[in-house]
Protein: tRNA (cytidine/uridine-2'-O-)-methyltransferase TrmJ
Organism: Agrobacterium bohemicum
Amino acid sequence: MAGTNSELQLLAEGPAIILVEPQLGENIGMVARAMANFGLAELRLVNPRDGWPSEKARSAASKADHVIDHTRVFDTIEEATADLQFTYATTARERYGFKPVRAPVVAAETLRTKFKSGEKTGILFGRERWGLTNEEVALADEIVTFPVNPAFASLNIAQAVLLMSYEWMKSSMDDVSETSFEPLEQQQATKEQLYGLFDQMEEALNARGYFRPEGKRQRMIENLRAVLSRRALTSQEISVLRGVFGTFDKYGRQTPRGSNGPYAEGSKKEDDRNDT
Amino acid sequence: MAGTNSELQLLAEGPAIILVEPQLGENIGMVARAMANFGLAELRLVNPRDGWPSEKARSAASKADHVIDHTRVFDTIEEATADLQFTYATTARERYGFKPVRAPVVAAETLRTKFKSGEKTGILFGRERWGLTNEEVALADEIVTFPVNPAFASLNIAQAVLLMSYEWMKSSMDDVSETSFEPLEQQQATKEQLYGLFDQMEEALNARGYFRPEGKRQRMIENLRAVLSRRALTSQEISVLRGVFGTFDKYGRQTPRGSNGPYAEGSKKEDDRNDT
């Protein structure tokens, strides 16, 4: 389901993503794809090594053309951020200085708040190999860093942009447990439906002499009922189970449903002797 | 800072990542890299198209060798999940059925809870082109889906694994606003320090006839103090500002610090006439 779907609202707003001296077109394209997935659209490049436009970037963007087509190129970070009011610098390394350091969740909430109040914001991402210089970080208002494995910290720029874009999208949700689709409506069965299942099963088992010795009957019934009530069954699940028990009850291996066997539907005990 | 750092704890625990019929070695490698970044280490492949091991996967994994080296290959999802007690299926499309659908945050919390209680869990990811079949989804306990842009939903498997791995790491944090490093300690200045700044600035400005007309003096002072108190200044910031005002006050363009100019440090008015 790649590519834009014109029937659905295309989210294209929020902070600018600013890549400082990105080297590989593929990475720029993956960045655009990551942005598009989570509703960001404004990509800015500072001195891309292989120039711009880039066919490699476009193909790696997997149809995120609305991002690629509007990507702008600048010579310096100062120019790339001139119209912005608040910027984050992403960094994996600890930096000297007094700048606040934020987790992605917190940074995304801050960006969302500023977006709602009409402020223009941006997020700076450094070079593939060595990130941002301290001087570049110093141009940002705050630092955002990712909670990576202490012994293996190796996010590439497309991965870092993906995580910030994802948190940006989440920051628009009233409830982070929201999902874009829901399971089919599940109605828990009424107790009457549950007791109906108990009765059917217990009657059929009783007719087969299941509850022996008699002294154990009550305990056996309790255990059976415990098994069937441990997980709250839905009405649908109960009707499925009743069908299963009913099938075991009415039909035999030798006399399946539809046969004229002894317990075949509609047949009567009197017919039995006519069979062989 | 790619690669494992033996001085730091290497996180390698948590749910198994199960890729169903992945096609490109590069994607498998990016999946391993994403996992390693967020402390996951158990990768399982069901029928990788180009076989296993894969040099392309190893190079794309960017030194996540501890994941690549222990990757296991299976013929079927049933075999790949046989030892697990709970699995999620990732899907972007709505599916028919009654399975609970969870957001990544909720799924990660569930996986963390089960991990703490010693249960073995896994997350299923589908093929690059068309994901998981309904039959494959039916083998999982619950569904997890990502809050993507309705009009542009195009996450590749490495991106999907990255997001789940990231949420897994976050689920280990007491507070999602935690960061791996902190800014240098910032002490807000005492009011005495702030008043000291006011006095220095106002005295120096007053000596220069800044507060005119006299009737406006009080208002001008209030405005100046408002500017300096709007953002809570730290002790360090106040000493920097005092140094700035002091420099303006003591030295002139023609008589910079270190010169023997009229107001030069240590010079006395009496010396002035000796200068020209």
